[in-house]
Amino acid sequence: MTIRNLEGFFAPASIAVLGPCRHPGVLTEKLIACLHEIEAAHRVTLVGIEQTVAFSGQRAAQLDDLERMPDLVIYLAKAETLPETIAKLANGGTRAVLIPSPGYESWPEALIQDCREAARKTNLRIIGPGSLGIAVPASKLNALLSAEAPNKGDVAFFSRSGAVLNATLSWAKNHNTGFSSIVSLGQRVDVDVGDLIDYFAQDFRTRSIVLHLEGIAIPRKFISAARAAARSKPVIVLRSGKSHDTGGTGRTHAGRLARTDLVYETAFRRTGLLRVHDLDEMFEALETLSQIRVPRCDRLAVLANGRSLASLAVDRLMDLGARFAELGTETRESLEVLSRTYDDLDKTPAANGTLVLRENMTPDDITRAITTVLKDTQVDGALVLQSASAFQSLPEIAKAITDAATLDRKRTGRRKALVAGLIGGDGALRAHLSDAKIPNYASPAEAARSLMHLAHDAQAREFLMAAPPSLPSNFTPDTNKARGIVEAALKTDRTWLTPKEVCQVLECYDLPIMATEMASTAEEAGELARPFFETAKHCVAKLISPDLPFKSNIDGVRLGLENPNAVRKAAEELINNTKNSFPDARIAGISVHPMLEDRHGLELYLGLAETQEFGPVLVFGHGGTSIEESVDIALELPPLDLHLAQAQIKRTRIARLLEGGPARPPLDTPALAEALVKLSQITIDIPEIQELDINPIVALPSGLIALDARMTLCHPENRPGRTGKSRLAITPYPKEWEQTIALKDGLEVFIRPVRPEDEELFKSFFEAITPEDLRLRFFAPVRDFSHRFLARLTQLDYARAIAFAAIDPDDGCLLGVVRLHADPDHQTGEYAVMVRSDLKGVGLGWALMQLIIRYAKVDGITTIKGEVLKENTSMISMCHALGFTVGTSPDDPGIALVTLPVADIPD
Length: 907
Fold this sequence. Notes:
Blueprint (H helix, E strand, L loop, with lengths): L6 H4 L3 E5 L7 H11 L6 E5 L10 E3 L11 E4 L6 H11 L3 E5 L8 H12 L4 E7 L1 E4 L4 E4 L7 E8 L2 H13 L4 E6 L8 H9 L6 E6 L5 H12 L4 E5 L13 H5 L2 H12 L2 E3 L2 H11 L9 E6 L2 H13 L3 E2 L4 H7 L3 E2 L13 E4 L5 H13 L5 E7 L6 H16 L7 E7 L3 H9 L4 E2 L2 H21 L14 H13 L7 H10 L8 E3 L2 H8 L9 E6 L12 E5 L2 H18 L7 E6 L7 E10 L3 E8 L4 H4 L2 E4 L5 H9 L4 H4 L10 H17 L3 E11 L4 E3 L2 E5 L25 E4 L5 E6 L5 H9 L3 H8 L8 H8 L6 E7 L6 E9 L5 E8 L8 H15 L4 E7 L3 H10 L2 E4 L6 E7 L6
Helix pairs in contact: 3-4, 6-7, 7-9, 10-16, 11-16, 13-14, 14-15, 17-18, 19-20, 22-24
């Protein structure tokens, strides 16, 4: 994860084009023509270019003729000489190499690896081969082999496909959209999508990021970068290649259900990215989000000068999952004279959020209607649809909408969404609205989709920062016992747990499962069933075979067995049928358990799938024998909290049945959400469990119970660093850093990493801090401890940030906190520390600083930095004592810059 030396591509002081060209002809001429425009801002030298091209800049026969190596080299020469050339360039200080091609170009992996090794020593960065190039319009850097030259703007766009890139540039030219940077990636040698997201998330010229991809090489890096970027800028992603996707392992239902594109969809949602599915939708989203972004867009209003226009928009919004506003009484009364009512429209879910305006309204009336609706506290966004009439021309309507937007921006309070549909308007009129930063379209459906892009973008950010409730405090899994069961199985080279072992593992995590016995013969099955009949009316017998995991597919289940003898006969029949039908299959035995007989129970499914792209994925959905046919499922990446689990449940169709009905009681949805979080914890604690099916797990009015489950095992790779054997794409809560320390007065303090559910804890903590201490910490007075403010402090990406909370073990109050946020290169971390105002002098601040220094060293961070107000003399004194060097910030003489080289501290 690094953005080091990427400025060599996007802000080079000098450039060299190195030949002779391996693609002779038009490529060199096109590239040199682009470079003509940048000679004034960048020093450009042609090196080894033999063909005659019109160029007025410097030329050289070879690299050795240059006084110094350039920042950026555009490499056109032979592929096989590149590793040697990279070594020479790296030693001379070159930071980046671009390898353009006129079309698709793929080099042998051995050659690619040689290039990586040559670049590794100095972190020289490489884009290509197969790249169409790069462009930074603001600095007039255009080394892009595209049909259209990009205009200056604030959108960063990168794509692996040259055709998608050219299509996007053509669309942008016609829609007056500009770019902060363009990157064509080609074959991935070094720089990837995660690096670029990190770089442009920090780029002040970039307001939004758009990317096209087919796959992700390093999921952890991508997810961490995307989560960080999406909090501050819209990130739009178009993924192609669904038709080429391969399936899962096929060993479990979960593995079959977790199809590749569904997993990508899950990852995009989890990171706050806005996914689009085709170029039209991408262009719409880009046009919309490059003009406006709002903090909330949940309750929508529709204004139209025709009932049918309003109906078309409402229909499309409903298809897209919109929620409609309930306009206030004051709003409706003030607009009653301007609107019309229709009985059929009043019957729709959007009735209280829809206004059909009269035909004879003046432009001023239109402006007043729009501003009045946007002023309503129950409205987050408005869709305005207008067509020409005998009473109003489209230019007058366009001006009225623009005037309304101008007036609304002067309104106090949060910004609200305004999207226009100017039906029948020409390009000039739409451009007038675009200049006023009003997304506008030529049809109700397009306008509706545009408004929903804003809604989904706002929902994604809100979802990222939602505070989850806490798990029950009595949830204390017996991790050691569960791990022991798995390790014992692996020592005997087994890749499946027995049904009884599965039950034991689930019980260790307080996941209720029907008591199950495992028999090796039919006679034993009958005897083991005997105790079950003391409390149960019927039992169930199932054939267990590691070669035949899907029992229902082989008629391997017998239900409603009334006594031990019936169990024995059923077991005998199952064994004989399997031997006859599948003579090569290994038979492990027969499992027996009581039959659940509850007419209110609902069969559901919980699973864990191993995916090639993102590691373990949790699956929830409709259970039973038809699970793979119904495909009513929702996926989520672990780790989960209760907020994520509840959202996962709601994304399925069967979730509606959990709410109950006239003849059915509501089922225990909270218990189901807790079960998903517990399953997530299993994936964190025991990475050796590769896949898992719990099918069915029956939701009851009170509680739930699993009737069948299976687990497959693996030997996970042991990676260096904190992650160890974890297969998760998202770094989980680092439980290993929980500890209890004693301060100098004997006070014991429990210290643990901060969790998302700590918002209220932090709010109470800040309320106990004096205003002066808050000012010293945040460099300004702080009075508003809003959810958004607290979420940024409590919701951490543990891959690049950590915060430790010091907690009073008696009352659970927060006593102090220290945090460290690493840069994308994971080399430097910025710290901050604060203790409660009444606890100064007891040594808590010192202990927290020692802890964060120790953590930084373990995590591979080489330098800790911080900014301290110079008047905060106690903090500066502590930094001196800890070994920090203290200097002055180049940006503010009143701020001290403190630095500690962690790598130099002995272990």
